[in-house]
């Protein structure tokens, strides 16, 4: 079992930056693929970014490519999402997720993930 706890959300003006963190419990974190998703009010949960177990492979949604960067520190059991040049349309609850078995790359679908955090709110004002 893995527990995920996100932090770092908040209110920021358009053009600003935030860094989200996701702390994971459990000894097997370093073997999991990790992802970030977001859900805006009244909308479905959308994929944002994913990173392989060793951090070598990353993948991004087109809407955030070039602005967001996903990284991980396996020694700290933590995955990060650096968000730059934020836009009002980035406003959402952001979730991190862990995938025990990565059968192919990228892992961008919700049902490919086994564990989810509780989410952290990101609000971008115009």
In terms of topology, how is this protein built?
Layout: E1 4-7, E2 10-13, E3 18-24, E4 33-39, E5 45-51, E6 58-60, E7 68-73, E8 78-83, E9 92-99, E10 115-116, E11 120-125
Parallel strand pairs: 2-11
Antiparallel strand pairs: 1-3, 3-8, 4-5, 4-9, 5-6, 7-8, 9-10, 9-11
How would you describe this structure to a colleague?
This protein has 126 residues and is an all-beta fold. Helices cover 0% and strands 48% of the residues. It has no helices and eleven strands. It has strands at residues 4-7, 10-13, 18-24, 33-39, 45-51, 58-60, 68-73, 78-83, 92-99, 115-116, 120-125. The strands form two sheets. Strands 2, 4, 5, 6, 9, 10 and 11 form a seven-stranded mixed sheet that branches. The protein starts with a strand and ends with a strand.
N-end to C-end Cα span: 40 Å
Largest sheet: 7 strands, mixed
Name the shape in a single word: globular
For the secondary structure, the number of strands is 11
Average pLDDT for all residues: 96
Please tally the helical runs, counting DSSP H or I stretches of 4 or more residues. 0
Radius of gyration: 13 Å
Oligomer: single chain
Query: Which regions are unreliable across 5 or more consecutive residues at pLDDT < 50?
Result: none
Helix content: under 10%
């Amino acid at each position: 079992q893995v527990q995920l706890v996100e932090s770092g959300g908040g209110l920021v003006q358009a053009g600003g930056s935030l860094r989200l963190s996701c702390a994971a419990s459990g000894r097997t974190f370093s073997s999991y693929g990790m992802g970030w998703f977001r859900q805006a009010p009244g909308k479905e949960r959308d994929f944002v970014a994913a990173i392989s177990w060793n951090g070598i492979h990353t993948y991004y949604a087109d809407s955030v490519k070039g602005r967001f960067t996903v990284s991980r520190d396996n020694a700290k059991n933590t995955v990060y999402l650096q968000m730059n040049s934020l836009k009002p349309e980035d406003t959402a609850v952001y979730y991190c997720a862990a995938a025990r078995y990565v059968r192919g790359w990228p892992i961008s679908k919700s049902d490919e993930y086994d564990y989810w955090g509780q989410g952290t709110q990101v609000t971008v004002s115009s």
